[in-house]
Amino acid sequence: MRRLARGCADAVTEFKTALAETADRVTVALDALLPRADGPEKRLNSAMRYAALGPGKRLRPFLTIECGRLVDADERALLRAACAVECIHAYSLIHDDLPSMDNDDLRRGRPTVHIAYDEATAILAGDALQTQAFEIICDEETSASPSAAMNLARRLADVAGARGMVGGQMLDMAIEAAGEGEVDIGLITRCQRMKTGALIAFSAEAGAIIVNAEREVRTALEGFAHDLGLCFQIVDDLLDAEGDENLTGKRTHKDADQGKTTFVSILGVEGAREHARHLAVQAKEHLNVFGDDAELLKACVDYILERQS
Amino acid sequence: MRRLARGCADAVTEFKTALAETADRVTVALDALLPRADGPEKRLNSAMRYAALGPGKRLRPFLTIECGRLVDADERALLRAACAVECIHAYSLIHDDLPSMDNDDLRRGRPTVHIAYDEATAILAGDALQTQAFEIICDEETSASPSAAMNLARRLADVAGARGMVGGQMLDMAIEAAGEGEVDIGLITRCQRMKTGALIAFSAEAGAIIVNAEREVRTALEGFAHDLGLCFQIVDDLLDAEGDENLTGKRTHKDADQGKTTFVSILGVEGAREHARHLAVQAKEHLNVFGDDAELLKACVDYILERQS
Fold this sequence. Notes:
Two copies of one chain form a homodimer.
Chain A: H1 11-33, H2 42-53, H3 59-70, H4 75-96, E1 106-107, E2 110-111, H5 113-116, H6 119-137, H7 146-160, H8 165-177, H9 185-210, H10 215-242, H11 245-248, H12 254-257, H13 263-286, H14 295-306
Antiparallel strand pairs in A: 1-2
């Protein structure tokens, strides 16, 4: 386990350095795992690489690696699990950005995949990135044992499929299409848990699944991921309402323009900010069971609360 | 193992009965495995069910179950593996039919998913069906052991992803866009092996992977699947060139209208038919190692060669 230097003047600065280091490691590992862009079908592989290797904070892979270190999971297994998480995340962004879904042309400061390539290639690149995630997870190098790999793959399927991320995106579009007053905070919360919360939870729990950690540890990580995920989404809504497009690297003010019900439209800007702060405090409390080992993750919570992009 | 009654006057009739029985069993099992169409995201689940439970020959699940019986794999495990294969097949059909891909409005005699629902729902239903396949495979009930489940999942990822089915669809679109004379039979064959051959191979090999069968058996099933898959594709091209839309349940004459290079355009109708016949003979020869137990599968080869839909 890695500990933060005692008396560190600025934990968030140390966190940002660690985040950048993790992002680099994940990008290098993904580069080796993804198919080369050659052969007659190279357009597909090129689009997969464009989406997965492009700029990105790699917050989910960071959670996988840092939470996995708390339970002493193997570093190489964690890096591979982190790559699988990033493949799922990248695939979901490609498909969410499509014209028939959110119709976004800008992502991480670059043209979205269907703009940079074309729509068919974008759909296929997303499809193949999902497959790639399971290919990485179901490899003996990603887990301590075949049964751990199977548990990991089953949990990934659970958070990524109809009961998780894909179901959440369906719900998100239903919320967007709904009239004013038809959507309450319960539905918004369900949508967040499925669309973004579930994959964040997997990211935080992967290491514990790999080492088959005891129940108490799993519960702490689940609670942490739950509060962090909700906090993350509320800040996302705040950034859409108040953020700067030059900083976020994606279009803002989309929710208000579309009259979409969000945490901000229901709670108001100040209410939403207060709720996010409360969740950040709770998320950090879940980590107390890990003592000083969790300082970096606590700094991550503060960063997510204060982020501008 | 099941044997055909000796002296059976019409093996193909017996095969058709067995195929219909398998189709029913797979539909019932899939119905139980797929998420119920309720909750606020029910539109997604409904579209998944429309695609996976609709009419279909279930040839791939039939191969999984019958080839698996040759190696004495557990019946329940085979049925689950067959369901996973059908989920991958259904997902690929949904995405291939999309307006930005093959732009088909008719499939198995019914409106395609993006026509019956909408484009976004179709993309998400395909996405979730892929996840569902891995969820089914990575369950302990699908395999004799966790390591067999892992091998099965890895092989499925291999045939379904960028090096398999998805890469093949990308290649198919490149072939469609290519000018006359730019595509040779080598490229067409590579495309077929990736787009349709790989999943057919998985269907035939799944049982052998589940029981960790000896090399000789694996090789026979691989050879069988290879020849059968290519034969299947050539007949598909023949059906597009000469088939009756009322029988096939999908649009025909698409290849010729689009000037697409196919086995038929390269070999001619008679040459393609001769090649398909030759492959059917070869496919059956691979099964000789299984003696009388393989009679039903041999009848399946004849059926695929003679099919009108």
